[in-house]
Specification:
By secondary structure, the chain is an alpha/beta fold. It has one domain (8-198, 230-254): Rossmann fold (3-Layer(aba) Sandwich), CATH 3.40.50.720. The chain is 46% helix and 16% strand. This is Short-chain dehydrogenase/reductase SDR.
Length: 263
């Protein structure tokens, strides 16, 4: 797919980090972009800065997602590209022990459901809504109607202690990618997933400010290059997945060859 001013795209979580980098890259090519994000202040600022459209969207709420797509399509037309970057986690072991009393503390099921709802269900919700719209479009050259990129995590394969909910949520995104690619194949819609490693997103840059030694140790743990990934490198891979018409049903690690240890 050629990415230019004829293409409309939606990027969830597009107001910061990996999402903002992707919006920046798409806008540099002239694509019309709608930013789906809950943070109105950031979203409006980034949209103005990059010449994009901001839609206040909570991916965990179906009515909010529907309203976001309606606004984006009214302004930019039916999207041919969707990049899902919205997500997050809540840490904790499956069971832990209170350090003072030794009491067993189970992981809260509500937190587990929240993390899966935000990452897995939120991603799938946007896929379903977007694919349904893409299917109404006339095919481009080669029969393609649209392309989707999801954001997983290396935690899907190397989940560390205390990442049970996040690992499960991201593993589910990885696991559904090929199935969705097969489901959408007759409609000419492709889908792929990126599994980022340790990226220099705002939360990680916050670690650098609060605990520079921990940040430096994280960077040094990456085999090569020994640093955190830049969000622009994520965006570059996302654009490759959108452009390349034979890239379909894949999950790709973007991690400098790191394999996360248990801790």
């Amino acid at each position: 797919m050629k990415l230019d001013s004829s293409i409309s795209a939606v990027v969830t979580g597009g107001a910061s980090g990996l999402g903002k980098a992707t919006v920046t890259a798409l806008r540099a090519l002239g694509a019309k972009v709608a930013i789906f994000d809950l943070n109105r202040e950031n979203g409006e600022r980034v949209a103005k800065e990059l010449g994009a459209l901001y839609c206040e969207v909570n991916v965990m709420d179906e009515a909010s997602v529907d309203a976001g797509f309606a606004k984006a399509r009214a302004e930019n037309g039916q999207e041919r590209c969707l990049v899902n970057c919205a997500g997050g986690g809540r840490g904790g072991k499956t069971i832990a022990r209170d350090k003072k009393t030794g009491e067993i503390v189970p992981f809260k099921i509500a937190d587990f459901e929240y993390v899966l709802g935000l990452n897995t269900v939120g991603t799938f919700r946007c896929i379903v809504k977007s694919a349904a719209g893409m299917a109404t479009l006339d095919p481009l050259e080669g029969g393609e109607r649209g392309a989707i990129v999801n954001t997983g995590s290396v935690a899907a394969e190397d989940g560390q202690i205390g990442q049970v909910a996040y690992s499960a949520a991201k593993a589910a995104i990885k696991g559904m990618t090929l199935t969705i690619a097969r489901d959408l194949s007759r409609e000419g819609i492709r889908i792929n997933t990126i599994l980022p490693g340790i990226m220099a997103t705002p939360p990680m840059l916050g670690v650098k400010d609060r605990a520079p030694q921990i940040f430096d140790n994280l960077a040094a743990s990456v085999p090569f290059p020994p640093r955190l990934g830049d969000p622009s490198e994520y965006a570059d891979l996302a654009l490759t997945m959108l452009r390349n018409g034979y890239f379909n049903g894949e999950t790709v690690r973007l991690d400098g060859a790191i394999r996360m240890p248990p801790r």
